[in-house]
């Protein structure tokens, strides 16, 4: 019921402490744009008012509102 069978065995996962998603993420997406990947990002440094959308990806994120640094996101 809660398990989805996947036939694609070539899924790539990227875990990355990007230290600022808005500055670095575009180049990472360009590098891997022809592959099926899931990106798990830490230290995105994003605020709620800053967008993080890229064609072909659904974005899930949790920004750190009260302190400097932090924030996580996943692009699927």
Q: What does this protein structure show overall?
A:
The protein is α+β, with helices and mostly antiparallel strands and 76 residues long. It has one domain. It has 1 helix and 4 strands; from the N terminus they run βαβββ. A 4-stranded mixed β-sheet has the order 1-2-4-3, with no helix packed on it. Helix 1 links the parallel strand 1 and strand 2. The longest helix is centred in the middle third of the chain and has 12 residues. It is elongated, with a radius of gyration of 14 Å. It starts with 11 loop residues before the first strand and ends with a strand. The mean pLDDT is 79.
Report the principal-axis shape: elongated
Question: Ends: how far apart?
Answer: 21 Å
Number of domains: 1
- Average pLDDT number: 79
Output the structural class: alpha+beta
- Number of H/I helices: 1
Approximate strand percentage: 25-35%
Name the helicity range. Answer: 10-25%
Describe the largest sheet. Answer: 4 strands, mixed
Low-confidence stretches: none
According to DSSP, the number of beta strands is: 4
Structural features:
alpha+beta, 76 residues, four-stranded mixed β-sheet, elongated
Chart the SSEs and their pairings.
Elements: E1 12-17, H1 21-32, E2 37-42, E3 59-62, E4 72-75
Parallel strand pairs: 1-2
Antiparallel strand pairs: 2-4, 3-4
How is this structure best summarized?
This protein is an alpha+beta fold and 76 residues long. Helix content is 16%, strand content 26%. It has a four-stranded mixed beta sheet with strand order 1-2-4-3, with no helix packed on it.
